[in-house]
Amino acid sequence: MLSRLIRQILFILVHFVVNILVAIQNVYHRLWVRRCKVLDDEVTKNDVIMIKKHVPKMKKSLKHLVVLVDTNHHSMSDLARLVIWSLITGIPYVSFHDITGELKQNEEKLFLAIEKKKKGIPGCIKWSNKPDLNGYTYGMNANNVFINIFSYKDGRPQIVESIRQIAKGGVDCEKKSNEFTTEEFGKVLTQLYNNIPDPDLVMYTGPHCSTYGLLPWQIRLTEFVQLSLDHSVDISSYIGALYKYNKCDQRFGK
Asked: Residues 105-111: what's their mean pLDDT?
């Protein structure tokens, strides 16, 4: 009877100690992650050096980068750093596909975050639907990057609406017969999307690779590359994703 009581007391003590250790570990983890996030939050000189070192080694030029954005995991600071890194890299078009629908509602916050990160970085950042917020190069010979924010509505619903407009004659288009070829329809969509080139690369985070309704017509030849498994955004994974894209051998059905 006594030994059983002792075992119960020891079990309770061990359980209590384990709970304390787990609580301490959780507090330490939160403080460490917060500290690391603060340290990695800015575009550093090391970021610029790494980009200047690795990008010249890449043979494939990247015209349009799309990032799948989940505002439950990605902060405005994360997205702003991706824009600045792409500006330094020389990618002319950077688009964000808004999965949750919250990014479009907070576009002004993203603009402010990008302007904050851009200090000291030469180049011009232009917003496709906000000409009054476009930046300037101040006479310097620097890169330009055009920012776009897409959502599910810009995918299939937009294609359906485009077909309706074509049927009504509301869109200027050229066709050689009564039926559209894929090339002719592609040209019409290009006009409707402000002549933005088709995405070359889509970066995503997390364990699942999904299009989330991203521009279904334009991503036929687009490469999807995982940026990170835990939704983190850092310069090493960004450059690593660019290297993976450069290693992709695209075959066009020939």
From this structure: 92
